[in-house]
Amino acid sequence: MEGFIGNLFVAVAFLSVLGSMVLYGLSAWKDESKALEKAADWLWISKGVFLSAASALLVYLIMNHRFEYFYVWNYTSTDLEPLYLFSALWGGQEGSFMVWIFMAFVVGLGLMAWTRKPYKQPVMFVMALTQVFLISMLLGWDIFGLKLGASPFRTIAQEMPNAPFIQANPDFVPADGTGLNDLLQSPWMAIHPPIIFLGFSMMTVPFAFAIASLWKREYHDWVRPALPWTLAANLSLLTAIFLGGYWAYETLSFGGYWAWDPVENASLVPWLFGTAGIHMMIVQRKSSRAHKGAIFFSILAYIAIVYQTFLTRSGVLAEQSVHSFVDLGLYNQLLMFMLVSLLLGIGIYLYRYREIPSPKKESTILSREFMTFTGGMMLFILGIVIILGTSSPIIGRFIVDNPTPPEIQFYNNWSMPIAMIMAVLTVIGQYLFWQKHNWESLASALITPLLLTSVASILSIVLGDVRNIYYMVFIFTAWFTVIGNGAMMIDIIRKNPGLIGGTLSHVGFGVLLLGILASSAYNEVLLDQRMQNYNDMVAAGEVFDEQGFPIREKAETFMLELDQPKLVANRYMVTYEGYEITNYPRPEQQQYRIRFEPVDGGRPFYMTPDVYPMQTTSTADNIEWSVEPHVRTGLTSDIYLYVAGSSYVEDRNQRLRRNRSITPASGQDINGEEENNQQTIEFSRGQTIEVGPYQFTFQDFRPANEENLPDSTLIGVRSLIEVFHRPTSSAFEIEPLFAVYTQDGQSWTYSPPLEIEQFGLGIRFTGIVPDRDSIELTFDGLREEYEEDWVVIVAEKKPFVSIVWLGTFLLMAGFSVSIFRHWAREKNTEKK
Amino acid sequence: MKPKLILGVVSIVLFTSLLMYNFGTSISTYVNFEQAENRTSSHVVGVWERSEEFGFSNETMQFSFHMRDEDGNVRRVVYPRPKPNNFEQATQLVVIGEMRNNVFYANDMLMKCPSKYNDPSEADFVNAEEF
Prior knowledge:
The structure holds two protein chains of two kinds.
Chain A (H helix, E strand, L loop, with lengths): L1 H29 L3 H30 L6 H6 L6 H6 L5 H22 L5 H17 L4 E3 L2 E3 L7 H4 L4 H5 L18 H30 L6 H29 L10 H26 L3 H23 L17 H21 L16 H23 L1 H4 L12 H27 L4 H26 L4 H27 L5 H21 L2 E3 L2 H11 L18 E4 L4 E3 L3 E10 L8 E9 L6 E3 L2 E4 L11 E4 L1 E3 L4 E10 H15 L16 E7 L3 E4 L2 E10 L9 E13 L4 E5 L2 E7 L2 E5 L3 E3 L4 E9 L4 E7 L9 E10 L1 H31 L1
Antiparallel strand pairs in A: 1-2, 3-23, 4-23, 5-6, 6-7, 7-8, 7-9, 9-10, 11-12, 12-23, 13-22, 14-15, 15-16, 16-17, 16-18, 18-19, 20-21, 21-22
Helix pairs in contact in A: 1-2, 1-6, 2-5, 5-6, 5-9, 6-9, 6-13, 9-10, 9-12, 9-13, 10-11, 10-22, 11-12, 11-14, 12-13, 14-16, 16-18, 16-19, 17-18, 18-19, 19-22
Chain B lengths: L2 H24 L3 E2 L1 H4 L5 E7 L6 E3 L4 E8 L4 E6 L12 E9 L2 E10 L9 H8 L2
Parallel strand pairs in B: 1-2, 5-7
Antiparallel strand pairs in B: 2-4, 2-6, 3-4, 4-5, 6-7
């Protein structure tokens, strides 16, 4: 029932936006009465209302665990916290489209309110056009065998009509869903995707304005309203990219924040093109040049978004990306979306090409126009390189069959030099932006910054022990960016602080470059002495594998035993102090405590990584473990640590394997080995005995409750036993029962076992020795050979990651200042 | 023709050629284990063969497991780092390295995780039924 309503809402939203698009188009073409435009406005609002209603309905279904709906079943489960239930709305393709469309709706409202003629109608026409394509992905219509979209409201019966249990019972409702992947059950899941889609929607605006300007032949003025929107789109994408990188760093065991994964590139490339467009727009605004560039990059930025959407959602990249989406059969629709956007944008650009103003005189090299333009071009080139790499499954096909993605080095090899050129251009560009210069005046203006840069670079090189010449040059250009732009920024602050957006962003860029180099190239794996020696031998070529080939890979892990400190990286005394089964936020989650004490006398600190069973993929017979790293953030470096293995996990896995292989009849496992883990130990009253990781104390006798005993009991008594488990520092008190009774003239003993589930330990009170005032306890599940509790650690020191974040924040701040400034200016112009 | 235009065109041509050449050398092609025997560096796609033994050895510091490629060949793979996190959940593996004496020595391994956009398989439904 709800599904029908949901699909109805989506259908109405689709028809509304289709109508809105047509009416906006007509009113843009005819140009006359407001009636068409007003009607189009209302249809846009109608689209937003109905789509929001459909989204709210889906959220309702999720919150109420309506697992007969395929989307709810596939992405949620009953044990999900409310925040993650809500985030599951964008856990799948269909839901994420809904979020994108909702964001675009809000953006459209802003455009409706703030865009003046003659732009408003054509801009809204383009917006509506994109929405037609997006909503069509949600329809789930079947038109003469042509499938249009995938409905978020389809039921399990509709999704898998051939599944046996559906054929047996068409109304089958699963008791629980498959759940949200554990790695996504994180607060970041609640914010990162929506901001991405906000960025995508906002990037439609410069695209729409560029097309509007071409349509209406208003080539000069359009950058004024478009610029704040483009800046906001860039800021949004930048924030989303940062959140994604930070999330990956904190949560995944790859220990980095960027992997050149296709979905990462999918937001970076539009951002680069958007930034190129911003630079062109600035030149156009100031100097009435670069009209072609401004239009071209505004169009390209959105086309990049659609193209990357196509790559990541159509299944083309299925082999290559950790993010890749399941193929919903949307390939053709996505392809249409891309082709139409491309044809519309490039088509109208070429059609009006000759009319677009061109500067009569070429700008000289030492002009702000030339520098800013070149900066834009460098951003473009970087974007092209990244798009090429990401498109390897398509373009690579011309070179080899079955192409793989390029090696990571490809991206690094190109982005580093391009970044260095951009870095230098930002300084020269800024100096020329605010003041005219010739070669001499420019040189003398740059002397002080160059001197300071040299000092800063030399200091960095010396303190950081930098040996690589390439890195030295890189450091120099990065410092030059920071200092050059910084100097200009201070200058501007004195005159008009509102104008520092550009310089601040560039400073952020320079800081980012410094952070990236430090954290990528100078990552240090922390190891104990034994593994360091092993690595030295590997480097000398002295280690061979079983087949006689030299091993070239260095070790990355080391082992710690409980309470045995080791010297690590010649700097820290590291001790494994134990673990705790916190059961939070997942059942059987363990937190490990590792103590670090700097040998030079600094304050000791603790690292507390976690290990947990994956809820979505583990079963009762087979636990699949995952880790939560612990990152200790510092100003100059981070310590990144996770547990790659522990005796607790090993034990659990072994016990599960034993359980799987034991046949019920014989009590022996399939290999015929007997379960031989019983030990009987005598305890005198008050005595403590250590066995393995446990300390057992027989405190005293306790009376037995008569109701539990068989009728003919002669003796019935309990013993109070205290159990202490050293690794977790947990203590239990148990009172196992011992009874003797008669049956058929014979005496029998009765010793029911008490289980401590966590450790797989069973304890039975099996005998009393009255002469010695002692008892016998029989233990099940104690290993004969006791092995100290251990963990295997991966620890890394990552220098200057905080600088990467700082650079990103400065970039964001710079963009924000610019947005305010241009927005305020726009408002003032309108008032006049 | 204006010198600037010539310079522009030449630089574009040079740049594009260099880029495409570099791109060409940095991609490879996916092969199966049998084809990998004749190559010095191969990318092989496949899945983890659970029924065979696997494990990380503290002595050799290597993680060894068996993998079945897309053509059904099963080979032992040796990976010189600890077992990657979430290895068992990977729906697909790509190993990059060299085949020697019928054992694949991987320098790198990529795992495709069943992340956000889960692909439902029939097996998942059996679990639901068991409630």
